[in-house]
Amino acid sequence: MFCKCAHKSSNKATHAHRTARLLTALCAGAGTLHFLKPEPFDSIIPPEIPGEPRNWTYGSGAAELTTAALLACPRTRRLGGRAAAALFVAVFPGNLEMARQWRDREPKWQVISLGRLPLQALLVKQAREVAKNC
Fold first, then answer.
1. Which of 15, 51, 87, 90 has a CA between 20 and 30 Å from the CA of residue 61?
2. 94, burial (CB in 10 Å: exposed 0-12, middle 13-18, buried 19+)
3. Are 84 and 71 in contact (CB under 8 A)?
4. What is this structure's pTM?
5. Residue 78 backbone phi and psi in degrees, to 5
C-alpha cells in the first residue's frame, strides 16, 4: 500500500493518502522541471532576492524533489507534509513576481498568474492535512 495512513479507518486518513500522492507528483514534476528547463523559473525569482536566480532555481528544485521523496515514503510522510507546507510558502514570492511581470499580458495569462496566488494557500492547507493525518 502507498501510504500507511490508509490503514487508519477514517475518511481524513483516506483523503490525506490521496493528497499525499498528488503532492508527491506535483513536487516531483515541478522539481524535475527546475533542472530540465530552468529559464522560466529563473525569470520569476524576485530581483530583491540576493544572488544568482539560477542558484535559487536549482535550490528550490532540489527542495521540491526532496519534499517529493519525503511524501512518497510512508515513514517520512508526516515530515514531507510539513516540508511541503513550508516549500509552498517559500515559493510564494516567485508567484507574486510572476503575477507582477504578467500584469500587461493577455487576460488569460493574467488569470493564470493571479490564480496561482490562492492556489498556494490551498496547497499549504493540503500539505498540513497530510502532516496531521498520515
1. 15
2. buried
3. yes
4. 0.88
5. -60, -45
Q: What is the mean pLDDT of each run of 10 residues along the chain (134 residues)?
A: 51 89 98 99 97 98 99 96 98 97 96 95 97 94
Residues 3, 124 contacting (CB under 8 angstroms): no
The cell for 50 is: 540576493
CB 127 within 8 A of CB 90: no
Q: How far is CA 13 from the centre of its chain?
A: 21
User: How far apart are the C-alpha atoms of 8 and 30, rounded to whole Å?
Assistant: 30
Closest CA to 101 of 51, 30, 40, 57: 40
**Cα dihedral 22/97/46/41 (nearest 10):** 50
